[in-house]
Amino acid sequence: MREMTSIDTILFDWDGTLLDSAPYAFQAFQKAFADLGIALERDLYDRIYSPNWYGMYQALELPEQRWREADELWTQHYGQKTAPLVEGSRDVLGALTGGGYWLGIVTSGSRIRVTRELKVLELENIFGAVVCNEDVIHKKPHPEGVQLALRHLDKNAESCCYVGDSPADMEMGKRAGVKTIGIRSGYPSSRELPGTNPDLFFDSIFQLRDHFRL
Question: pTM here?
Answer without folding.
Answer: 0.91
